[in-house]
Design brief:
With 421 residues, the protein is an alpha/beta fold. The protein folds into three domains: 3-195; 201-294, Beta Barrel (Elongation Factor Tu (Ef-tu), domain 3); 306-415, Nucleotide-binding domain of ferredoxin-NADP reductase (FNR) module (Rossmann fold, 3-Layer(aba) Sandwich), CATH 3.40.50. Helices cover 48% and strands 19% of the residues. It is built from 13 helices and eleven strands. It has helices spanning 3-28, 35-56, 62-67, 71-101, 105-112, 119-138, 145-170, 176-195, 274-278, 316-324, 346-355, 372-377, 393-405; strands spanning 201-212, 215-222, 234-239, 252-259, 265-270, 287-294, 306-311, 331-337, 359-365, 386-391, 413-417. A six-stranded antiparallel beta barrel has the order 1-2-5-4-3-6. The longest helix has 31 residues, at 71-101. The structure holds flavin-adenine dinucleotide. Flavin-adenine dinucleotide binds at residues 145, 234, 251-255, 268-270, 272-277, 313, 316, 418-421. Residues 145, 234, 251-255, 268-270, 272-277, 313, 316, 418-421 line the site of flavin-adenine dinucleotide (FAD).
Length: 421
């Protein structure tokens, strides 16, 4: 992808909520009102537009994600626009109170005390409260994932309350109906299309192997329409039932570890939490629903010499690439894993490296962060290489810092984190 096209893609995600916010402001632009009342109206409409834009950015559709530069970019702007929207919506009653203060402190207090207000205004306060709890959960990285997600849903109810609040106050939908339509579509698609998986592809587990301790790799074959992932991409998989296996049915992201010419694909799954632990008992014949493919990792990998660094299960995107094609350019692959028990695919990678003179494999066994100075000393022309990193967040952060110290430009470093909060 050209740099100009990449730059254009990067502005679509922030531009979408901003345009919605500005269109709301243009419609409701106040004339001849006191300053703080005008501030209150502008912040309300700008916040509402941003919030609806934030909802649109949580819709998970492969084409939309590709248009916006990837699901991670999309989710980043979903969070940012939601947060700015909340700050603006909070400003709305505060500005009304400041406006009331000019007449009397009692009027200012009335603008802030919900129990003195009518039901349309209660709806507004309920919206703010729900958004506050939902956003608070968004930033609580320590919350268990399912609780985090349940609290995140409060944001959707908060948006509904907010839109009903404006409708009740206006007495008619006015400029609100496009916002209501977009919010309704986004929430319906998210609930039915994404979380309940109505639009998912049906696959079946063909075989399961155990490449390392607490890890499986499953080959999945299409039951109907097939997806066309490329190495580096990931899918959301929800495992169903088989003769002796009952899946939890939740969609979780997994990077493809192999792409078969017959439409099959493989995913390697490390036991981490409740679902990935449960999936370790997977068996052939189980139905799987897949969404995707998503992601742009490795999309430009063939353009010049490479350094790939994989930590643990982060080996999967590189494995998919190496299983599919021989290297077109020199590739140095540093594969880090904790112990001999965790050494998934090492024998296979060694065999690939023996057969492909362009691939140099450095496998490193041991917990904690590696000695990057010693490792990078083995890689020739380090600064000229495109670097691709995949693994746990602390490893990625430490590797980026070490690469920077070795003079590798930041824009040559690409990485994928296995975390979406
Ligand atoms: C882009 C991407 C690619 C990944 N590829 C692989 C892979 O190839 N192999 C592999 O073993 N693991 C991969 N993971 C991680 C895998 O998705 C999690 O280990 C799994 O979802 C954990 O679910 P759990 O119920 O077992 O654990 P939990 O304890 O519920 O979750 C552990 C953590 O996983 C993340 N997570 C859980 N569920 C989801 C979800 N539905 N959507 C997004 N994040 C979630 C959260 O950060 C959470 O804190 C990938 C993650 C991402 C984001």
């Amino acid at each position: 992808m050209s740099t100009a096209a990449g730059a254009l893609k990067r502005i679509i995600a922030p531009a979408l909520p901003l345009m919605l916010g500005l269109s709301g402001v243009l419609w409701a632009l106040p004339h001849g009102l006191p300053l703080w009342r005008s501030v209150s109206i502008v912040s309300a409409w700008l916040g509402t537009g941003l919030l609806v834009g934030s909802l649109l950015l949580m819709v998970r559709v492969p084409r939309l994600a590709a248009l916006l530069g990837g699901l991670d970019v999309q989710y980043r702007w979903h969070h940012r626009s939601g947060t700015v929207a909340y700050a603006l919506l909070l400003l709305h009653p505060l500005a009304l109170a400041v406006d009331g203060w000019a007449q009397s402190p009692q009027l200012a207090w009335q603008a802030l005390a919900p129990w003195l207000l009518s039901w349309p205004l209660w709806l507004g306060w309920a919206a703010l409260l729900l958004l506050m709890v939902g956003l608070g959960a968004t930033f609580s990285v320590d919350l268990p994932y399912r609780r985090w997600r349940a609290l995140h849903y409060l944001l959707g109810i908060g948006v509904l309350c907010g839109l009903l609040h404006v409708w009740a106050l206006l007495g008619e939908p006015g400029a609100l109906w496009p916002f209501m339509l977009l919010a309704g579509l986004a929430m319906s698609w998210r609930l039915f299309g994404v979380d309940l998986g109505i639009a998912a592809h049906a696959y079946r587990v063909r075989s399961v192997i155990r490449p390392a301790a607490r890890m499986i790799e499953a080959v999945l074959e299409p039951c109907g329409a097939r997806m066309k992932p490329v190495p580096g991409q990931f899918v959301f998989a929800a495992f169903g039932d088989g003769p002796n296996f009952h899946g939890c049915g939740e969609f979780h992201p997994f990077t493809v570890s192999a792409v078969g010419a017959d439409g099959s694909l493989a995913v390697g799954i490390k036991a981490l939490g409740p679902c990935s632990q449960h999936v370790q008992a997977l068996e052939s014949g189980v139905l799987v629903r897949l969404q995707g493919p998503f992601g742009t990792f490795l999309s430009g990998w063939s353009a010049g010499a490479q350094l790939w660094i994989a930590g643990g299960i982060g080996i999967t995107p590189f494995l998919a690439a190496l299983r599919r094609d021989r290297c077109a350019y020199p590739v140095a692959l540093i594969y880090l894993y904790r112990s001999a028990q965790d050494a998934a695919y090492v024998d296979e990678l060694k065999a690939i490296a023996e057969a492909d003179p362009l691939l140099a494999l450095y496998d490193v066994c041991g917990g904690g962060l590696p000695d990057f100075v010693a490792l990078f000393g083995k890689v020739s022309d380090l600064r000229e290489r495109n670097v691709q990193l995949c693994g746990p967040v602390p490893l990625i952060d430490a590797a980026r810092e070490a690469l920077g110290r070795h003079g590798v430009p930041a824009d040559s470093i690409h990485f994928e984190r296995f975390d979406f909060r």
